[in-house]
Amino acid sequence: MTDDMGREAIRIVLEGGPDRFPAEERTRYVAACEPRFKIQHYGGYEHFERDEDVTAAAGAVVVYRWVARTEIAE
Length: 74
Prior knowledge:
Layout: E1 9-15, E2 27-31, E3 36-41, E4 44-50, E5 62-71
């Protein structure tokens, strides 16, 4: 699978973060080369980083752990 820019995409699961972060938003596809991922949520961004302690086999789901939240500037 590839992303919109033609890069290899991997399936990830987002762990941690706010309790109200929807379960259906926690699994998605991102470019395999991305060490970080952020998603807009309730007026801010939730930031996740790839868990390097988890070695994923080809086709396995990669874990990204929550690291911070930032607010959207108005």
